[in-house]
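Hi L.,

As promised, Dihydrofolate reductase:
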Amino acid sequence: MTTRTGQVNCNITISADGYSAGLNQTEERPFGDDGSDGTGGKLHAWMFDSPEENQAEIDQMAAAAAFIMGRNMFGPVRGEWDRPWNGWWGDNPPFHTPVFVLTHHERDPQPMDGGTTFHFVTDGIESALEQARAAAGDGDVTIVGGATTINQYLTAGLVDELRLHIVPFTLGAGTRLFEGVPPLNLEQVKSRAATSVTHVTYRVLS
């Protein structure tokens, strides 16, 4: 029997009240009403405005051997793929590894520049994780969101570690982490406060 050495972690930026996106998400406003211009600038400014201060967390996020994301994180729903579209991520997405996208609609794998290939999984979260683990080998699998997808994996007990990047403002409504998730036992592994974000890592015990 082979022992798996890689772990399954979730990595997500949230507001202080737990939202990963505001209301009214569109193609032009992927994070909806996020309190700024709607492009995710306020939620994710820590990654782009002060990357040197947060380089360790950015590098850790990029170190996964495979990724999982929800359909809406790949791009907004377009019925049954009514026109070809490469998602939010441009021609050279930042993943550079296989990415498994949860969706209800079949689509051929989509290779991109830089080594990223999007694989579209229609048979559930367990299948996506099985495929991601196979692709990752001994490396880690990172579930990058959105919150609805992470909530499904937390509810199913499939997460080893939860990495939160908490920004100091509230949204009040939108897509919320832990929504509908049963009570969890978490062990704090580490935390670090930066200028515009606090990074907290929890081990999921049950």
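The chain has a mean pLDDT of 87.

Thanks again for sending the construct details.

K.
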